[in-house]
């Protein structure tokens, strides 16, 4: 559908610099997980698998990985559904107090996390859910909702309502219009929202630090606790493993979305 | 065309209830403490504003956040734009490069920057090679900014690309066939159409930058402290919940003020560039 | 300022009373349970092996561990009437500042305090292990060993970067005043303005550490030239090949403080643990595992050569050391930290 515009060299070079900036830390983290010395110094002088061994023999580490992945998937799914529905309602209903609701939903990104952490810890303690998986899940869901609302709203804003009107004229019902017309069109925004939500939960450290117990400790909290005590390249192992898991979780929906799009396209052409 | 109010209330309910109960209630109770401790009144705020640290660090935080927005646009916009120009395979590669930082834990990335930026580290060596010897970026404002931009850039690029990918390039061809040159086409047609994405991405990056805590702590010196770190000291060392609640309210109001100003500024900007953009 | 909002506490208590689930984890008061909170990792593992496990076997109590020690968490537990921790390891000033409000007063009838250095125990706490904040210097860099803290401020004779703790109670204020000529016995109350003025003279040469692992890493990597660090970290760095050497003159003594959280649901077991921890044997066992020295000076740990070098309990170190005035820090922690933040961030 797009006509190819020639890419100018300066643009390509600048994007190259940007790409380097984006991947530079990752290029350090992966080799660092194989370092021989207990040090973060780079370049690496000798190689070993000792930090991997440490990760997989210490339940504090591999347990934390499991906790983090479970919470991140749960939080991202709930936040994506709740956030997408809310963004759609806000976009279509033109509520008089819509801006207020939007502000409310964005609040969790605006409040400094250290304050959110203390406040949530105190309140959840009173409710008896501090230190429980439910408490951490709820905290991460609300933290992730704004990260869904923002991209979905942006996608809806650039969405052409005439398409929906056309669908209505052609006799599609409310749900049909939603599933068949609107959702596929805003799906890049929804996927971006899911990625943001997943990563937000997976990387969140301050709130999880307050809500932790010895049996409920997320991976970033374990990483932070570990490096406050000693220089510990195991965090590089943890990060490299998370990279593998995130790749799977994030690439799968993209893969299916791409396949769906190809299938749809195949259907369109008679 | 209008959805019934009940229908939209139903769609809104899950998100609104979750945020209201699980977030606003706790935050509300801590902010309330800033008005009730030690007694009812504004004593906490008098105390906070009498402390020279509050305004100085708040001002610094706003500047750093603005700087981060600027740099993220500088790097992110051309990158997102390039993503719309290339073929699907190259586009996928560019997308993966944006997602790689997301897949690498934030904590590990920050420590990676520590090893990259430290005294005699790779960046120092690179700068020395380029003819600027003896520079250590760790513990400086530049070091903090590099770390922050790297973390925030994916948010900018992904938000932008959501908008840019939907801009109809046929409009550009049309403009050019009507005699506009490349630059005029870009600034008068493409840029205005991309503004919702620019605005959303900038707002997101700005808000996120205001809350940075661990990155400036590890990559900067106390002179680069941001407001979240000062709040952190109040919580962890002073156990001053009222003061921390008060500071958060100040941050919240400042953010709201900045966003409101941006929204007001945004309309004239769009009008000035000659594109109504109102879709209904 | 730290007092509870009474309404909040009352409503929380009421809610608790209604729901009928007193005391946090629900394992209240039958004396068979105890939760111990400390700083985590190897440090807490060593505390378990040397102290908690032997005690628990003797007393028939199941111990749960939690970490890290967090003052806001303690405050919120006590304020909400949901205390889940019983015994906690803190900095020395904390139990003095919060005696009777956030920590319980101890029963000293079965604790022999005569073996603790003067000033290391209080109505609400006992010392379990001691360490010192000391100056270390890079011996490869400086042929002439610095003698006292004046060298720390002498950038002509000892050029280079200085590393200091980034909070008021970390020791930099005391060191600045001592270097400025204040006699050790006249150190407290600290003259904050004078201390900051002295620190300003070397401001451009200062770097700061927030976590002790950062300080150790800096010694190992040699990214600084002089530093104020905890003796235990200097020891660990030396084991890992650092070239830094300690200076013991006017070392600032500090200690790991054990106390009982206010309204602990297992008060009796907690008191019994404190009594056990005050004895020489568990403290000696701990000192053999971690680079801390016993606070009970009767303890006779078997130390190797490097451990002996950093043994803060040794008489020659004790003679040169200054005991930090916990009462001063209990009374002035907030004020001094606000001043520190204002100074360090500008």
TrEMBL record, chain A:
GO terms for cellular component: plasma membrane. CDD domains: TM_PBP2. Residues 65-253 form the ABC transmembrane type-1 domain. Keywords: Cell inner membrane, Cell membrane, Membrane, Transmembrane, Transmembrane helix, Transport. GO terms for biological process: transmembrane transport. It holds the Pfam family BPD_transp_1. Its main location: membrane. The chain crosses the membrane at residues 12-34, 61-88, 100-125, 137-156, 185-211, 235-257. This is Polyamine ABC transporter permease.
Automatic annotation (TrEMBL), chain B:
It comes from the Bacteria. SUPFAM superfamilies: MetI-like. It is found in: Cell membrane. The chain crosses the membrane at residues 57-80, 92-114, 126-153, 189-214, 241-266. CDD domains: TM_PBP2 (cd06261). Pfam families: BPD_transp_1. InterPro entries: MetI-like (IPR000515), MetI-like_sf (IPR035906). Keywords: Cell membrane, Membrane, Transmembrane, Transmembrane helix, Transport. One of its GO terms (cellular component) is plasma membrane. Residues 58-265 form the ABC transmembrane type-1 domain. It is a multi-pass membrane protein. One of its GO terms (biological process) is transmembrane transport. The keyword Cell inner membrane does not apply. Belongs to the binding-protein-dependent transport system permease family. CysTW subfamily. This is ABC transporter permease. The lineage of its organism: Bacteria, Bacillati, Actinomycetota, Actinomycetes, Micrococcales.
From TrEMBL, chain C:
The keyword Magnesium does not apply. Gene3D superfamilies: Periplasmic binding protein-like II. This is ABC transporter. GO terms for biological process: thiamine transport. It comes from Sediminivirga luteola. GO terms for cellular component: outer membrane-bounded periplasmic space. Its main location: periplasm. It is found in: Periplasm. GO terms for molecular function: thiamine binding; thiamine pyrophosphate binding. PANTHER family: THIAMINE-BINDING PERIPLASMIC PROTEIN, THIAMINE-BINDING PERIPLASMIC PROTEIN-RELATED. Keywords: Periplasm, Signal, Transport.
């Amino acid at each position: 559908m797009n006509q190819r515009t020639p890419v100018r060299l300066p643009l390509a070079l600048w994007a190259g610099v940007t790409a380097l900036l984006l991947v530079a830390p990752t290029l350090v983290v992966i080799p660092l997980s194989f370092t021989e010395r207990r040090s973060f110094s780079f370049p690496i002088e000798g190689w070993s698998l000792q930090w991997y061994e440490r990760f997989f023999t210490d339940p504090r580490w591999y347990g934390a990985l499991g906790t983090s992945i479970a919470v991140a998937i749960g939080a991202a799914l709930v936040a994506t559904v709740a956030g997408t529905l809310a963004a759609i309602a806000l976009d279509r209903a033109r509520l008089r107090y819509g801006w207020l609701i939007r502000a409310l939903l964005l609040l969790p990104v605006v409040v400094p996390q250290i304050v959110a952490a203390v406040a949530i810890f105190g309140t959840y303690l009173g409710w008896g859910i501090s230190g429980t998986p439910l408490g951490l899940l709820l905290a991460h869901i609300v933290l992730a909702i704004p990260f869904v609302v923002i991209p979905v709203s942006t996608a809806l804003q650039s969405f052409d309502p005439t398409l929906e009107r056309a669908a209505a004229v052609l006799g599609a019902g409310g749900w049909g219009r939603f599933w068949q017309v609107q959702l596929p069109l805003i799906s890049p925004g929804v996927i971006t929202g899911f990625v943001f939500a997943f990563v937000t939960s997976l990387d969140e450290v301050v709130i999880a630090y307050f809500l932790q117990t010895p049996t409920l400790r997320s991976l970033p909290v374990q990483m932070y606790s570990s490096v406050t005590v000693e220089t510990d390249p195991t965090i590089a192992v943890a990060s490299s493993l998370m990279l593998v898991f995130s790749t799977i979780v994030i690439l799968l929906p993209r893969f299916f979305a791409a396949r769906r799009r190809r299938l749809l396209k195949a259907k369109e052409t008679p | 065309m209008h959805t019934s109010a009940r229908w939209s209330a139903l769609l809104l309910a899950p998100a609104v209830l979750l945020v209201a109960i699980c977030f606003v209630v706790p935050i509300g109770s801590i902010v309330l403490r800033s008005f009730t401790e030690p007694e009812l009144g504004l004593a906490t705020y008098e105390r906070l504003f009498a402390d020279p640290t509050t305004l100085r660090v708040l001002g610094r935080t706003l500047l750093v956040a603005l700087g981060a927005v600027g740099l993220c646009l500088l790097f992110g916009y051309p990158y997102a734009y390039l993503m719309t120009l290339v073929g699907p395979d190259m586009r996928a590669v560019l997308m993966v490069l944006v997602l790689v930082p997301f897949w690498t834990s934030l904590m590990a990335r920050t420590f990676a920057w520590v090893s990259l930026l430290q005294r005699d580290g790779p960046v120092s060596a690179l700068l020395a090679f380029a003819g600027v010897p003896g520079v250590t970026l760790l513990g400086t404002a530049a070091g903090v900014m590099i770390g922050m931009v790297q973390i925030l850039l994916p948010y900018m690029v992904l938000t932008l690309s959501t908008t840019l990918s939907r801009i109809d390039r046929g409009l550009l061809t049309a403009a050019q066939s009507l005699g506009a040159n490349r630059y005029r086409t870009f600034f008068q047609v493409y840029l205005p159409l991309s503004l919702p994405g620019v605005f959303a991405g900038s707002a997101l990056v700005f808000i996120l930058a205001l809350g940075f805590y661990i990155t400036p702590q590890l990559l900067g010196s106390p002179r680069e402290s941001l407001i979240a770190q000062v709040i952190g000291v109040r919580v962890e060392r002073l156990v001053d919940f009222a003061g921390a609640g008060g500071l958060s309210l100040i941050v919240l109001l400042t953010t709201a003020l900045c966003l409101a100003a941006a929204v007001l500024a945004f309309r004239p900007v769009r009008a000035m560039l000659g594109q109504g953009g109102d879709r209904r | 300022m730290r007092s509870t909002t009474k309404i909040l506490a009352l409503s929380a208590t009421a809610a608790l009373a209604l729901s009928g689930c007193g005391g946090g984890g629900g394992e209240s008061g039958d004396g068979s349970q105890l939760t111990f909170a400390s700083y985590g990792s190897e440090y807490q593992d060593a505390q378990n092996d040397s102290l908690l496990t032997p005690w628990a076997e003797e007393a028939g109590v199941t111990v749960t561990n939690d970490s890290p020690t967090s003052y806001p968490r303690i405050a919120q537990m006590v304020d909400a009437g949901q205390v889940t921790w019983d015994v906690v390891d803190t900095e020395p000033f904390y139990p003095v500042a919060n005696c009777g409000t956030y920590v319980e007063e101890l029963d000293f009838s079965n604790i022999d305090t005569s073996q603790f250095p003067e000033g290391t125990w209080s109505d609400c706490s006992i010392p379990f292990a001691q360490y010192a904040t000391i100056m270390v210097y890079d011996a490869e860099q400086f042929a002439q060993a610095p003698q006292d803290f004046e060298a720390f401020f002498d950038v002509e004779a000892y050029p280079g970067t200085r590393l200091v703790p980034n909070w008021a109670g970390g020791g930099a204020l005391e060191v600045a005043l001592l270097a400025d000529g204040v006699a050790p016995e006249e150190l407290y109350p600290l003259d904050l303005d004078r201390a900051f003025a002295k620190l300003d003279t070397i401001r451009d040469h200062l770097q700061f550490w927030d976590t002790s692992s950062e300080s150790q890493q800096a010694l190992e990597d040699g990214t600084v030239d002089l530093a104020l660090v905890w003796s235990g970290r200097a020891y660990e760095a030396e084991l890992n090949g650092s070239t830094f050497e300690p200076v013991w003159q006017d070392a600032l003594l500090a200690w790991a403080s054990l106390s009982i959280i206010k309204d602990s649901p297992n008060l009796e077991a907690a008191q019994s643990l404190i009594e056990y921890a005050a004895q020489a044997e568990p403290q000696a066992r701990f000192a053999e595992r971690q680079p801390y020295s016993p606070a009970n000076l009767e303890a006779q740990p078997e130390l190797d050569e490097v451990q002996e070098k950093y043994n803060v309990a040794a008489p020659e170190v004790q003679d040169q050391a200054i005991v930090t005035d916990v009462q001063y820090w209990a009374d002035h922690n907030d004020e001094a930290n606000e001043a520190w933040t204002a100074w360090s961030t500008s």
